[in-house]
Amino acid sequence: MVLQNGSAILMPWLDRVAAVVETYLAGEAVGEATWDVLSGHVNPSGKLAESFPIRLEDTPSYLTFNADPAVENYREGLFMGYRYYDKKKLAVQFPFGFGLSYTKFAYSDLKVMVKKDRVTGSLTIKNIGDRSGTETVQVYVSNHASKVEMPVKTLANFARVSLKPGESKQVEFELSQREFSWYNEAQTDWQLDNGAYDVLVGSDSQNIELTQSIELNWTANKTIKITPDSYIGELVGRDDVQTAFKQTGLDKAFGQISGGESTNDQMMLNMPLRAAVMVGATTDQIEKLIKLVNG
């Protein structure tokens, strides 16, 4: 089956065809290019820039799209595309970054190093098939440090590598501090949190071949001001906030938070500070806490 389409489509017929060649809207030379792929003259190496869902109902905007004839509301926020399917643990027809070749590639020997202001890495990729081909190595980052909603992983870098049959090459990559940061709307700036992260390497967003965990400690001396919208999870680990908790009496409201994996802990950690009124805090206590912490 050869597709010429402008976006992801449903494929109820997929189990009745031997293969699918995705050409999107390739222009006037699409016929010749498609024949080169089908005849084996060219080894395909394209990767999908979007996930193909199994059902229309699985898409992140399904509940709101076209619901209001005057205004189109997109409420998925960070969780678009593969980040939504990852978080919901929804199976897809074809994941973001997916693409087959007439050969196969093996990944090995991932090495990740934390430098003063960046993360560097390398891995070995080998063509284990009998045809020359090109692979797109994809590098993702998983954030376990920040106490706000986060995707399971986010694409951070990629590299295209062309290999002859049996050939191996070392692929090197670099990740800046921005790749480990999230945008804090309350601070109107990017925030980088110390803690645990994973660097994942694979051939698409679901086929992760190699993973290495790292610990970042880049912002030890940076004190971030708090606001009513600051998440409680951002505060409970800070020594200066602990002192302010005691001075305002809020240590009683937050004293039961252990930072563990229980449902109650996770619910509290992901609440904004202003919502602490639901667990016994007063507006005056919250305002006093902010003044004490921010100076």
UniProtKB/TrEMBL annotation:
GO molecular function terms noted in the UniProt entry: hydrolase activity
Annotated InterPro entries: Cellulose_deg_GH3, Fn3-like, Glyco_hydro_3_C, Glyco_hydro_3_C_sf, Ig-like_fold
Alphabetized UniProt keyword annotations: Hydrolase
Domain Fibronectin type III-like as annotated: residue spans: 135-205
SMART domains: Fn3_like (SM01217)
Keyword Hydrolase: yes
Family designation: Belongs to the glycosyl hydrolase 3 family.
Family annotation (PANTHER family): BETA-GLUCOSIDASE, BETA-GLUCOSIDASE B-RELATED
Designated name of the protein: Glycosyl hydrolase family 3 protein
